[in-house]
Amino acid sequence: MSDNKITLTPEQAEEFGRELDAVRDRVTAKLGEEDADYIRRVIKTQRALEVGGRALLFLPPAWLLGTAMLGVSKILDNMEIGHNIMHGQYDWMRDPTISGRSFEWDTACPADQWRHSHNYMHHTHTNIVGMDRDIGYGILRMSEDQRWHPYYLGNPLYAFLLMVLFQYGVALHELETERIRSGEISLSDKREVLREIWKKTRRQTLRDYVAFPLLAGPFAPFVFTGNLTANLMRNVWSYMIIFCGHFPDGTQEFTVEETQNESRGQWYFRQVLGSANLTGGRIFHLLSGNLSHQIEHHLFPDMPARRYSGIAPEVQEICERYGVPYNKGPLPQQFATVVRKIVRLTFPTPGKVLSLLPKLNANKPADREPVAA
């Protein structure tokens, strides 16, 4: 964690948690038809964009429009639909087609693996070095508390490759590549994980890069490149939104010791300090899956994301009263600080002891129960 720690007394943390619980309870009590209509409307729009975009790829003069429509449909499916539905944000509707436990999305990462690596591991252990594998995705050095190694001289290159291939980086997340590299586990231990990733990736690859191009006949190159570009659009956009929500200047990391036996209020406190918001208009928030309100999302991951913009001013006001920084800024500004951090952490951190926390038992993170729902 940063040397300039911001702390709350146990009493302050309890009150902080109580006020945020009140926000959550009030919104939950108001969920209803308006929210249900919203997610159904977004799904309908996404499907129309996908069908229309794929059709236009068969017409070379309309390639640019078709590619843009398909790219936006993939972004909506990934961000506002898949990510949010799999958090259980619409489980209260009792609609099996949008159940958080069974929904599958259009990206390389199998949904069940995402539900574990993201919904449980990341949201429970947010920004705890050694437990939250989203810190660097097992590829990058994104914290001064990560032990430096010459491997990290490639940090900027790895970051660029992760950005353009983001769906595959996310898919490989559950492999725990850092533990494989350290010798803690072997690749054979992840045989079932690999099988599921290959099954999902093969299906997507055949659809986007074989089946649809073949259907296009002489226009196959246009369909192939259109699909490739749409997937690239989704990858780059998702990477930027997610990294700007977790790693810009001002976000903090924590040690395992700092977070032992934390109360619900302290858990809320960590979520705010470990997250950052992005400012923008309605379309921007929609295309970000409302992860532009990353602070509110980390506080209330199973609250319908469309509600975040409404509660953000109140959450900010609560944070200000308790002296808790509320990090927000425009996308270009936040992303610039992320890039700067990636470059800076390419090299050893001056004055830092180059060691990490003691290696955790492989089963330890999964044994720790989340404080928040």
From TrEMBL:
GO biological process, one term: lipid metabolic process
Pfam families listed in its UniProt record: FA_desaturase
Keywords, ordered alphabetically: Membrane, Transmembrane, Transmembrane helix
CDD domains with a match to the protein in the record: Delta6-FADS-like
GO CC terms of this entry: membrane
Domain Fatty acid desaturase: 62-328
Single GO molecular function: oxidoreductase activity, acting on paired donors, with oxidation of a pair of donors resulting in the reduction of molecular oxygen to two molecules of water
InterPro entries: FA_desaturase_dom (IPR005804), Fatty_acid_desaturase (IPR012171)
Transmembrane segments: 55-76, 151-170, 209-230
Protein name: Fatty acid desaturase
Source species of the chain: Mycobacterium rhizamassiliense
Upper lineage: Bacteria, Bacillati, Actinomycetota, Actinomycetes, Mycobacteriales
